Amino acid sequence: MGGVRLAVVGGDGIGPEVVAEGLKVLSAVLPDVETTDYDLGATAYHRTGEPLPDSVRAELAGHDAILLGAIGDPSVPPGVLERGLLLRLRFAFDHYVNLRPAKIWPGTATPLAHPGEVDFVVIREGTEGLYVGAGGTLAKGFPHEVATEESINTRVGVQRVVEDAFTRAAARPRKHLTLVHKTNVLTQAGGLWSRVFAEVSERFPAVQTAYQHVDAASMFMVTDPSRYDVIVTDNLFGDILTDIAAAVTGGIGLAASANINPTGAFPSMFEPVHGSAPDIAGKGVADPIATILSTALLLEHLGHPKAALRVQEAVAAELIARTAGAPLRTAEVGDRVATAVS
Ligand code: IPM
Ligand code: MN
Question: What ipTM was reported for this prediction?
Answer without folding.
Answer: 0.99
